[in-house]
């Protein structure tokens, strides 16, 4: 519908070049925040724009800035973002909008060699996007010249505040030419932000887009009432949830604990919160974006502003504290015409809070029952059946047929097949006769370990700078076994999986119990299965 595009963005009196770039980006019409702020910026006003995450705030300032940038190669706009991740994201989006106008946008952030940035700056960019710290650094070095700056943008201002950047922001603002436009965008407007705007903005136009615009009708919303949320979540992961999800917790500690709780149950999840270094955040986001982990566990603050595609489910592991944050969270899914699902856990005492959210947002969150043991079993059966079907369809298991004909001399075909499925499903547990051992054999089944090996879970990982060598050495010495018998070791941020030969598993568990690796106390336990 290109004609429509032209009409709509055309109504905003944009250059043809910019409209072409927007069409290439797949934008069909301006979003509400864009429709309202772009004319104000083009007329030369300062603007305060408030709208939820995912409503297109980047283009709301990016489009009019690009349109007003002069055809010269000096820096004319400075955009401050709270994190490096966002600086990169904003630079990408602004770069795309400016592509046809040949306007260059460069992200600068800590952690990247400053020399390289200085060279890139010299090559001629008109828009610089960065975290306040690194921007200040460049200002002090004189590698970013302020006199040509005509636009300052404070993006995700509320998060900037949460991250303690207010002084850096002020220092930058104080040093900019007075003849400039200041644009401030935020999902929420806490008081300190407002006082900042009073101090540094000139008669700003205020545009606030309210939440009903965001409550995506394409998000199905359900809630579950349970006292054991981890168990409930595991059941959902086994039976219902099949896709890419963000799980929200109320606190950083909650995030860490849930990463570990899911890890011990065999689900791979990554946590995201304010205590992580920028590098750690980048790594987590990269993995999640690339689909190497499907579960991201985050606090509201850490997830704010991040634009991640194809989220199929949002899980409120902890019920959000206010209706606004509920809307924010669920707005992460159901984007771009896809259907999303939002699942909220409540404990019996949180029922009133749920009703409060329903009323404030004017939606109905439907009650649902958690999958039962029978559902979980049923799902496992379905998985077994579909795995077997796909092997049968490939029809390339001829080498095993002679085993079957040997066995069918003494057993029926049904019995042989059932035994084979049991072995496939339960692994070594299927071979156990007695279970009088301290280590419950059922704990050792089906955890992805190779035959003859069991997988162990340890509650330390990369965060403690643990290496494969540390683990092998400690276990080998403590359990008095040769290091080379230890199998695959997977080290994650907060935990590690180690394969140990079955016959020494118990011994390793016994000696490692309450032991230390590199001075860190470890807890070692058998890993549990995902499917
Ligand atoms: P916010 O800053 O409000 O959280 P973003 O600027 O990150 O939102 O935009 C969210 C997503 O929506 C991005 O992928 C962006 O490319 C897309 N987007 C923005 N404006 C439009 C539009 N007018 N039409 C279609 N998609 C858009
Ligand atoms: Mg944004």
From TrEMBL:
Keyword Cytoplasm: yes
Keyword set, alphabetical order: ATP-binding, Cytoplasm, Helicase, Hydrolase, Nucleotide-binding, Stress response
Enzyme Commission identifier(s): 3.6.4.13
Catalytic reaction list: ATP + H2O = ADP + phosphate + H(+)
Residue ranges annotated for the DEAD-box RNA helicase Q domain, each copy included: 7-35
Motif interval(s): Q motif: 7-35
Gene Ontology terms: cellular component: cytosol; ribosome
UniProt GO BP: response to cold
Class of the enzyme per the UniProt entry, highest EC level: hydrolase
Ranges where the Helicase C-terminal domain occurs: 218-378
InterPro entries on file: DbpA/CsdA_RNA-bd_dom, DEAD/DEAH_box_helicase_dom, DEAD/DEAH_RhlB, DEAD_box_RNA_helicases, DeaD_dimer, Helicase_ATP-bd, Helicase_C-like, Nucleotide-bd_a/b_plait_sf
A GO term for molecular function: RNA helicase activity
Boundaries of every Helicase ATP-binding domain copy: 38-207
PROSITE patterns: DEAD_ATP_HELICASE, HELICASE_ATP_BIND_1, HELICASE_CTER, Q_MOTIF
Pfam short name (any one): DEAD
Similarity field: Belongs to the DEAD box helicase family.
Protein name according to UniProt: ATP-dependent RNA helicase CshA
